[in-house]
Amino acid sequence: MSENRLPFTGHEKIRFNVPPFTGKEYDYIRQAVENKKICGDGEFTRRAGRWFEERTGTAKCLMTTSCTHATELAALLCNIRPGDEVIMPSFTFVSTADAFVLRGAVPVFVDIRPDTMNLDETLIEGAVTEKTKAIVPVHYAGVSCEMDTILDIARRHHLFVVEDAAQGVMASYKGKALGTMGDFGCYSFHETKNYSMGEGGALLIRDPEYIEKAEIFREKGTDRSKYFRGQVDKYRWQDYGSSYLPSELNVAYLYAQLEMAEQINEYRLARWNEYYEQLLPLKEAGKLILPTVPEGCVHNAHMFYIKTADEGECTALREFLKDRDVLAVTHYVPLHSAPAGRKYGRFYGEDVYTTKESERLLRLPMYYGLTADDVSFVTEKVREFYGA
Predict the structure, then answer these.
(1) SS (H, E, C) 330-377
(2) I want to staple 103 with a disulfide (CB 3.0 to 4.6 A). Which of 77, 80, 296, 329 is the partner?
(3) Cβ contacts of residue 209 below 8 Å, gap of 6+?
(4) For the packed helices 261-284 and 248-258, what is the interaxial angle rounded to 10 degrees?
């Protein structure tokens, strides 16, 4: 796989992430330029949208400039208004909350499960009030939340479900692609994701009734999408909206990876399994905790993380690995403890696991191009830290 690594100058380290690269990206970007169509919704953008529709079975996939913008579109489609409440985990990236805070909503943070780091589905119903408008499950590490329970709660309380599947491309729950079970699903193609266009995302729409409105919001509030399909003679300002269309150059870069999606997925899963097997003795010795993938969930090897005894040990291990040229990283500071989280949101119930589990989680290097030897080196240094 070394031939597929992007150029890297300087002292070679085992980096935490290297953006995926197949070799066809340059050719496709050149094609986009030669097509003289590099703004939004060109041929590569249409191909990518169709690819996700065929792959996931969603009614419509709209490519966006980021997963953040995909989530903002979902908030618009849910008609989120000031004072509405939206249930979500605190252990997530800020965009999950930002998209709804921008609409004046209150994020209601619910504790997570310690096994998957996902929203604890048994606590959601207690957080529902007359102001609740939506539930936002976050599929952490490409491992699904317990969607049957979440969808049942949403149905009984007439709530929208917006799946934050930023990390979930090519993962599934009981045979259904992540992002397709709720009303809306949001994907990310940031450079740290399994498939990347640098910055980018996608909105998946389950019910066709929302497609036209989503296209209008995405095209600055106009019916420009209809105009390009020849359905109207001129496009007009129809509603509020913004510019959520990605550059054709970015999607051309992504499409080269979608054509090799299975190969990339299998490659990452192989590295994930090597990590698990080589660190299993430390788990069995009670030194650390490895990821859990519940029955019915098919993950995508988005990340491999370990959990140490506590925050101090996590910091010590991270510095130990850094000194040996292995770049591992910690993850989210829980949103409810951040200044904006305290200002805009509230935590429902008790924070039993969110803070404690987040402080001891460490992500190990994982990317397309990471070799089996790289994994062995990383796990050797982890074992060295624990004297094993």
Answers:
(1) CCCCCHHHCHHHHHHCEECCCCCCHHHHHHCEEEECCCECECHHHHHH
(2) 80
(3) none
(4) 70
Question: Which domains does the chain possess?
Answer: 13-258 (3.40.640.10), 261-385 (3.90.1150.10)
- Strand partners for 243: 219
pLDDT digits (tens, 9 = 90+) for 31-90: 999 998 898 899 999 999 999 999 999 999 999 999 999 999 999 999 999 999 999 999
Burial 198-220 (b: 16+ CB within 10 A, else e): ebbbbbbbbeeebeebbbbbbbb
| CA distances from residue 357 to 339, 340, 370 in whole angstroms, order as listed | 20, 21, 27
Instruction: State the Cα–Cα distance between residues 223 and 54, nearest whole angstrom.
Output: 25
Identify the CA nearest to 165 among candidates 257, 49, 365, 299: 299
Contact 1, 267 (CB under 8 A): yes
Question: Hey, what are 44's tokens?
Answer: 């590569």
Element (H, E) at 86: strand 85-89
Q: Which is nearest to 162 in space by CA: 90, 70, 283?
A: 70
Tokens of 154: 């949403």
Other CB atoms within a 10 A radius of the CB of residue 346 amount to 13
304-307/361-364 β-pairing: antiparallel
* DSSP per residue, 49-85: HHHHHHHH--SEEEEES-HHHHHHHHHHHTT--TT-E
**62 DSSP β-pair partners:** 203
| Spatial CA neighbour of 97 closest among 77, 119, 115, 71 | 71
Residues 261-286 pLDDT 10s? 999 999 999 999 999 999 999 999 99
